[in-house]
Amino acid sequence: MVQSSSISVSVNFKSKMDSLRILLYSLIFLLSVFGNLLIIMVLLVNKRMRTVTNSFLLSLAVSDLMMAIFCMPFTLIPSLLEDFIFGAAMCKTVTYFMGISVSISTFSLVAIAIERYSAICNPLKSRAWQTRSHAYKVIAATWVLSVGIMVPYPVFSTLVPFPKPNNSTGHMCRPDWPMSQVEQTWYVLLLFILFFIPGVVMIIAYGLISRELYRGIQFELDQNKDCNVLKNGLNDTTSHSQDDSDGCYIQVPKKPPVMELSTLSASATSKTDRPRSNTSEAKLLAKKRVIRMLIIIVAMFFICWMPLYSANTWKAFDQRSAKRALSGAPISFIQLLSYTSACVNPIIYCFMNKRFRKALLATFACCVLPCRVCRRREGDEEITGFTATSMSKFSYTTVSTAGPC
What we know:
elongated, palmitate, lipoprotein, cell membrane
């Protein structure tokens, strides 16, 4: 009697866990597919969005879409059925595309971090080589490298039979390594190439960017102090003149007529230009938000991928204890956590950016409005957005890091 009740409890618990897994996998799958498809559509349709950083984001979106399509269904269904029902050929194909998508996604994140570091910390030097052609070459290199690195998966992946509790034979798709030393070497290599080294590079790059932003914040605060001191000794005309630079660069004019002319031109252009929040307080808040976003990027990378690489390395060196502790639902949730990066990346890199959201709305508006209206709107954006190119280093830092899209 006690044994039957314990069996029924375990069955109920398993059914609840399976329902939870199906719900979470379906939610992450839908968010990943639709989120990355939206990014791909917006970046391909809008010509003005085809920047260097967005080229890497397009590659990242494609790899994350591949991860969602080839990883999630072929991980969840065999786990629920306790049998890989798709055949030996599909086993090799799925594992290969799984590895390629994860590798490209990681390399794209590293490329974005290095590109942002160069553009923000060394803006003058980076202009010589940060072109779209160079970005295309880097993206092609990451794809070729990923395709080459993951060759062992289709070579060694096969269907391994195992006995099931109902006396039937199930199959699991896994690499059948010739020796345990080869398996250990492989997973240690993946741990360093796809997790440890990229993580260190991202920490260093975003750490240096955060330091540059912090210096910008201190610069803004110092300029505000000087601004408050200088304002007391200037006339009302000078104190109310607008300045599009980053700090408060107030200079006492040597020739009053020139100052009067500049004041008149500033007041005249302020009537025609759209109002923009270029105050020092807004810039300080923007830079603080960027620093928080960079911390989130690094934290999410380690949260999503550290459990999976740790589990794979543990399984390679001590398969019995790892299989006993992680088999079933635990390893399934660990894999789901890694797949979460496919829907987190679009949110962090694009949907949190105001410019991308405007481009997304404009793209959907163009599907409804006539083509003439869309072309006219794009032309207006090019005219009004021209003045944004003349920025100082700290202003460029705020805009470029806050919105790679």
